[in-house]
Amino acid sequence: MCNTSLQEHRLPCTQKTAIITPVLKKQKADPDEPKNCRPISNLTFISKVLEWIVVQQVTQHLEVADLMPEYRSAYRKHHCTESVLMKVLSDILGVADSRQVTLLGL
How far is Cα 85 from Cα 94, in angstroms, rounded to an integer? Predict the structure, then answer.
């Protein structure tokens, strides 16, 4: 099913459904008020497997073709928020050592 979906560039109709469960944003909120809930979507197992396969293929292509930005940490092996934080801190300290102005926009 996964191979066919990838070859035909489409997902079978049976895999396009999700079980949606409303979860309260705050414990003391009124559960009868829709704005107090956030939807949690549980997808089918096959659609999650297919999603994982596509992510692996796209990531591999981006890395092999050298299209992934060097300092991007999200969705990469051996990268995390700590590595990004260390890079930013290193850049800030380097600029501060040379007595330049540092501006960080988040």
Answer: 14
Report yes or no on whether pTM surpasses 0.70. Answer: no
CB of 10 within 8 A of CB of 31? no
Q: What is the pLDDT of residues 62-73, one digit of tens each?
A: 989 999 887 777
Q: Which residues contact 29 (CB under 8 A, 6 or more apart)?
A: 36, 37
Rg of the chain over CA atoms, in angstroms? 22
Q: Which H helix or E strand runs over 43?
A: strand 37-43
Q: How many residues does the chain have?
A: 106
Residue 18's SS3 state is strand
Distance CA 106, CA 102 (A): 13
Largest CA distance in the chain: 61
**In the chain, where the domains are located:** 2-68, 71-106
